[in-house]
Amino acid sequence: MTRIIAGRAGGRRLQTPKGDQTRPTSDRVREALFSAIEAWAGSLHDLRFLDLYAGSGAIGLEAWSRGAAAVTLVEADRRTAELVRANARSVDCDVADVVARAVATVLAEPARSSYDLVFADPPYPLPDEAVATDLALLVEHGWLADGALVVVERSRRSPEPTWPTGLTPLAGKRRLKKYGETNLWLAEAGPTDSLAP
């Protein structure tokens, strides 16, 4: 079990998938993640949040609890996606859009909406090239609002993600947050009109 840390559903418990098909982000890393997001955004109020490789949905539901207006959670495993839906119901989140499809397949389509915040937590064994493809698809297919923040969680042993044109790593110490075996890499989207050929 894990829990929502703060906000309207703070303290509420969430179920996690059984077995080892997911790697839940620890409470400590989630708290650090949202501290970094709130330092960047000021507040999640009325922002749109995209949670890729959602697992239990804890990150996306935490974003909603802290004020996000809409949350889309993408999880390829259908049983895990059903668990995300159950977790959303258990915390009374009625704005969670759970998509039970592979992340790369979803991102290869034109965006349903543009998002202000994107969190990607791919399985650590996923090749760096596949992560780079996901990031490029976010830019190419209109998933990012102007100035959107993108956060990628990777193993400490993985290199910095390859950022496509249109995503710029944050400056200085804001670019990378380290927590034990976990690295959080942060980048910001440029204005979409600057990406036109």
TrEMBL record:
Its EC number is 2.1.1.171. Keywords: Methyltransferase, Transferase. InterPro entries: DNA_methylase_N6_adenine_CS, RNA_MeTrfase_RsmD, SAM-dependent_MTases_sf. GO terms for molecular function: 16S rRNA (guanine(966)-N(2))-methyltransferase activity; nucleic acid binding. Pfam families: Cons_hypoth95. NCBIfam families: 16S rRNA (guanine(966)-N(2))-methyltransferase RsmD. This is 16S rRNA (Guanine966-N2)-methyltransferase. It comes from Nocardioides kongjuensis.
